[in-house]
Specification:
single chain; alpha+beta; six-stranded antiparallel β-sheet; globular
Length: about 110
């Protein structure tokens, strides 16, 4: 089951006001970026964040899960709790590097 557009819109609404948010669809699922840093995976209408030391205390007692086959265990973020979600995402933004730009193939 792919993530619905309505759920993705809800996630973005819950995080509004913390910075430049955008999303990118991937295989029916989505990556959400804050200020160009990939901070959230949304898979099957569930919000996942990496298990990182900077959010361990904020995510204490949170459910965990695997967002897609072959992925590591992630925290499941309670996106209904907008304040907690914003805190978690802002902390992750501080430690998440910008994605490396891919080199474009030269056309012959």
């Amino acid at each position: 089951m792919a993530t619905s557009t309505e759920f993705l819109d809800f996630v973005l609404e819950q995080l509004s006001g913390i910075g430049a948010l955008r999303h990118r669809k991937m295989f029916g699922e989505a990556m959400i970026y804050l200020n160009d840093r990939p901070v959230i995976l949304v898979c099957n209408d569930t919000v996942f964040v990496k298990q990182h030391d900077v959010i361990r205390d904020l995510m204490e007692g949170a459910e965990t899960g695997i967002p897609y086959k072959g992925a590591k265990d992630h925290y499941v973020l309670d996106i209904d709790n907008a304040e907690l979600s914003k805190q978690v995402v802002l902390e992750l933004e501080k430690v998440t590097p910008l994605p490396k730009k891919r080199k474009k193939k030269n056309e012959a």
